[in-house]
Amino acid sequence: MTNRQYAANTDSLMNEESLQAAPTVADALCTGLLAGLNHHERDVLARHARLQSFAPGVALFQEGDESADAMLLLSGLVKLCRHSSQGKECVLHLVHSGKFIDAGVLFYEGGLPISAVALQHTTVLSLNRRAFLHTLENNAPLAVSLLGAMSLRQRLLITKIAGSQGRISVAGRVAAWLLHRAKMEKSATLRLGVTQEILARLMGISRESLSRELSALSAAGIIEHQRRSITLLDHEALKLRAQG
């Protein structure tokens, strides 16, 4: 299924309120990393940009697709995932609003290695791949900022891989993820938005292990865990766990 088919399939699934609340392309081009564009760059990209909406459970793009446009998440929540030959899902990252879903789509060769799936009603700004690459070639600050965002995700992935090899404990993985999420959201209170099952897959641990660790952190006064949010109370204690 192509990206256009994905978008077309969502048209009938989005409610009127969601469509009325959608921003304009001009508004979207002032969001997140794109806020630093000059007027000329913004005008050029506007001619190669479109808004798309996706219902929960709908794929924005899928592993194996030949290519995809760069997508800036304006609202909602998206998971990046990959499936094994047996169909088992590995959740690689959760993308929150204001972030590019996966800047790697600009550079992947031989097909996309991951899928992006909406977990909530989602709106994105799609930027034509060639047009956006041309902008990056002529806007070094934007390119550097995008590299910085990609490096933060790579750090999380490295932690996950090391954990799967037994080099990082469950406590270390959970602490590292909480600290990373707090840094990304610039807030000590993290909005979860997904089930513990998805969070556990994201960290590469079982749901039971995640539940036990969150309970232990709560009992120690390091976090405050509620159903839909986690508040970090002791950053230093979390740093020690992440390093240990």
UniProtKB/TrEMBL annotation:
Annotated signal sequence is: none
Domain Cyclic nucleotide-binding residue range list:
33-136
Q: Under what name is this protein listed? A: Crp/Fnr family transcriptional regulator
Statement: the UniProt record of this protein carries the keyword Protease:
no
Q: Does the keyword Transcription regulation apply?
A: yes
Q: Which domain of life is it from?
A: Bacteria
Q: Which InterPro entries match?
A: cNMP-bd_dom, cNMP-bd_dom_sf, Env_Response_Regulators, HTH_CRP, RmlC-like_jellyroll, WH-like_DNA-bd_sf, WH_DNA-bd_sf
SMART domains documented for this protein: cNMP, HTH_CRP
Biological source species: Desulfovibrio falkowii
Location of the HTH crp-type domain: 168-236
Keywords of this entry: DNA-binding, Transcription, Transcription regulation
